[in-house]
Inverse folding.
């Protein structure tokens, strides 16, 4: 009986361990972020127009995107290579590093939330600060980056259960209008 009990306890422990998510190490994440700083900045404020601002994004969103690049589900000539070299722990750590930052919208003069793109606000907010955890912030992103991503969703190059349908219904003028709306809003990212 005692051996059977030890086996059950032991097996139960293995199930818990198998499903455990590794604890994030913020300082290890900062070290990994040094590889990201050229494009995304150490604080997550993008240094180049074709890279998104990632500071203040939820860790689950960032980790999911890195895993998608690593698996090939999402492709990018630089990100696919970088993500391929990251372990699960490094992905969790760097996602935690960037997630600990805070992102805030800097609204342009005359900002009118009522004029925001209707198809975007439920997830990304009128001010471009995401309302839904698995949606990225769009405030302050470059129009080229936003247009590229919307066109990728619309053409099927990128797939998402919500974004693919929304983007495929937008024509080029609507894509440009959405991109210009969110690009006109500034973003500030502050560290911990």
């Amino acid at each position: 009986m005692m051996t059977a009990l030890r086996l059950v306890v032991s097996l139960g422990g293995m199930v818990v361990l198998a499903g455990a998510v590794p604890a994030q190490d913020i300082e290890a994440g900062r070290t990994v972020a040094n590889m990201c700083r050229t494009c995304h900045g150490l604080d997550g404020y993008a240094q180049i127009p074709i890279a998104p601002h990632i500071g203040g994004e939820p860790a689950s969103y960032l980790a999911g995107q890195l895993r998608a690049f690593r698996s090939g589900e999402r492709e990018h000539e630089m990100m696919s290579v970088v993500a391929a070299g990251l372990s699960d722990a490094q992905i969790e750590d760097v996602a935690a590093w960037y997630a600990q930052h805070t992102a805030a919208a800097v609204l342009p003069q005359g900002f009118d939330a009522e004029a925001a793109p209707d198809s975007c606000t439920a997830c990304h907010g009128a001010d471009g600060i995401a309302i839904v955890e698995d949606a990225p912030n769009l405030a302050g992103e470059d129009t080229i980056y936003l247009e590229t991503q919307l066109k990728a969703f619309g053409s099927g190059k990128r797939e998402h259960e919500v974004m693919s349908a929304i983007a495929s219904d937008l024509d080029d003028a609507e894509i440009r209008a959405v991109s210009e709306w969110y690009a006109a809003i500034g973003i500030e990212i502050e560290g911990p």
Notes: Strands lie at 102-106, 186-190. The domain at 24-100 is CATH 1.10.760.10 (Cytochrome Bc1 Complex; Chain D, domain 2). The longest strand covers residues 102-106.
